[in-house]
Design goal:
429 residues; alpha/beta; eight-stranded mixed β-sheet
């Protein structure tokens, strides 16, 4: 394959220039100017597009096994490539949970598998505790050997600090991150959104910011004590970011991520969209969203992550108390990040979407260097409007419905093969 005339942006190589790129098999073999097409070589005209290392979403819920009505590996990876993602990290809150080597092998696909309908690479994140119950540590070396790239009880928090300390002590020598879903269940109580003026106005129970921040503080202190790597998932408050900065100043091995919805929405969205805006952690205040955008610009956020959490339409309908938590995100993420941070330099944007996640989780890719996997995301500044009816994901609920987003994925290449081409693009052949 020859990709011609695009703006190649590769932060790892410090490359931002108009170049051509050639792949052979599943590898990148050449980058240069005015490369000549070879006989029988597929050619993509990328003039006017950015050509970037394949984007990585390190926080997705693919629902299989156990919840195939919400999503499957096939539908989830179809959504991924439409959203420009060549690699996904799958969270373990399936049924059964990803807490053994057999489950890691069942969900992991380090290369696409078209016979199974798996269009993107999938790397499993295994559970931190048995059945994600927060009580029993696991055989982490065996799970790493089977292909787990990190560990999390995402969707739940290890409530017992002693157990969490044991988890971190066991993970420290493996140099693999514990991905923390920070939420004190007792503080949250029956909260269905952020506790504040909007929840009071709506007359619904709220979850205070301290429910997140208290766990962030606890786990950062434990990480400092035992020398383990901790990754704070879906940071949603300004104080959580302050705590992360505090821990880094003391040389804690801490990384973090932010979602498109926490960058753009506030708790007022719940008043407008109802259950479609119900998510965990909840949408916070305008000051929190502003602080998160500032943290991205300052380089304090390690990478973007969608927290793609699809549900059936029935599960997302009805009142806030009973509606499912979360919504689909893979197909809107790239455009939403661009809308949230229109002033972000392109090299930083690509690093947050690809390079940094590859580095933090030790994944293949994150670069277009010769010899790297031929995973490529091509996008343009073509605006488009979000229409959930066109989603490949089974989850159609999103508060972004009807939004115009300023950045559009034009083509996605995984392992040297085109996995997605947009309709209506102005380039390409």
């Amino acid at each position: 394959m020859l990709v011609r005339g695009g703006r190649i942006v590769d932060p790892r190589q410090r490359l931002d220039a108009l170049r051509d790129l050639r792949t052979e098999g599943d590898r990148i073999v050449e980058i240069g100017e005015h490369l000549r097409a070879r006989a029988g070589e597929e050619t993509i005209d990328a003039v006017g597009w950015v050509v970037a290392p394949g984007f990585i979403d390190a926080h997705v819920h693919l629902r299989e096994p156990g919840f195939e009505a919400k999503e499957t590996l096939a539908s989830g990876t179809a959504a991924a490539v439409r959203g420009g993602f060549t690699t996904l990290c799958a969270m373990p809150n399936t049924e059964p949970a990803i807490d053994g080597v057999e489950m890691v092998a069942r969900v992991g696909f380090p290369a696409p598998n078209r016979e199974r309908g798996v269009l993107a690479r999938i790397f499993p994140i295994a559970a931190m505790t048995r059945a994600r119950a927060g009580r029993e540590v696991l055989d982490y070396p065996s799970l790493v050997a089977a292909g787990a790239v990190a560990f999390s009880d995402d969707g739940s928090t290890v409530a017992d600090a002693r157990v969490m300390r044991e988890v971190l002590r066991a993970l420290a020598p493996l140099d693999r991150p514990a991905i923390v879903h920070a939420e004190d269940a007792a503080l949250k109580g029956s909260g269905v959104m952020h506790e504040g003026a909007v929840s009071a106005r709506l007359g619904v129970p709220g979850s205070p910011a301290s429910a997140e921040e208290s766990i962030v503080a606890r786990d950062l202190i434990l990480a400092l004590e035992v020398g383990a790597r901790v990754h704070i998932a879906h940071v949603s408050t300004a104080r959580s970011m302050e705590l992360i900065v505090w821990a880094r100043e003391r040389r804690a091995r801490v990384t973090c991520e932010v979602t498109p919805h926490h960058l753009l929405f506030t708790d007022e969205a719940v008043e407008e969209f109802g259950a479609r805006a119900k998510v965990n952690p909840p949408l916070r205040t305008a000051a929190d969203a502003r602080a998160l955008r500032d943290a991205v610009r300052a380089g304090a956020i390690d990478f973007f992550a969608s927290d793609h959490a699809p549900h059936t339409d029935a599960e997302k309908s009805g009142d806030l108390a009973h509606a499912a938590v979360g919504f689909t995100g893979l197909e809107i993420a790239v455009g939403a990040y661009a809308r949230a941070l229109p002033d972000l330099p392109m090299s930083d944007f690509v690093a947050l979407c690809s390079t940094r996640a590859a580095e933090v989780l030790r994944l293949p890719g994150g670069t277009l260097a010769v010899g790297a996997p031929a995973d490529i995301t091509m996008f343009s500044e073509r605006p488009w409007r979000v229409d959930p009816a066109r989603f490949a994901s089974k989850g159609r609920a999103t508060p972004f419905e009807g939004w115009e987003l300023p950045r559009c994925v034009e083509a996605t290449v995984v392992a040297g093969r085109v996995a997605y081409r947009a309709e209506g693009g102005t380039s390409g052949s």
